[in-house]
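User: Predict the structure for this protein chain, please.
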Amino acid sequence: MAPDGTAYVAAFNDKVYAITPVGTLRWVRAFGLFGLNVASPAIGADGTVYVGSINGKLYALDDLTGESLWSFSAAGEISSPAVGADGTIYVGAVNGRLYALGRDGAQKWSFATGARVLSSPAIDAQGRIYFGSDDDRIYAVSSTGSQVFSLRTGGDVRSSPALTANGGLVVGSSDGKVYALGAP
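Assistant: Here is the predicted structure, written as structure tokens:
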């Protein structure tokens, strides 16, 4: 949800909706694809709306009009994106990579895992990015793309990590366990 209360919703009907706080439709953006993700859009500090698609693209949309500003192509389905304090956009893809993109959509770096990355990234106050992969690992990566740590779980990690107030991390795995890690 945007600071002004506008909600942005991606739907399987190939459309993104902007709904005002009073429930009126601000805009609808039709893509004509074969289905947007049910992943949640992310909103940048400047209001730009970022939404992933199963066609392997991340789209940047103008928050007031819904017009496409740019798109970034990766291989296959894209996770829900996250936006860092500096405006960097982080998004995972089924090709096993986490991508860091500038506000203009240019790739800054990518980090390779051993399998699909469908977990939505979480970013802490120091700029570290946390996410899971189908290689059964939870990852922490620095804002420059260097691995800080990884932790093997007993199954795919597709859930989105949650940061706790004291700097800890909580994330679920398909092994049926929830992992709680202390502040790094």
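The chain has no helices and 18 strands.
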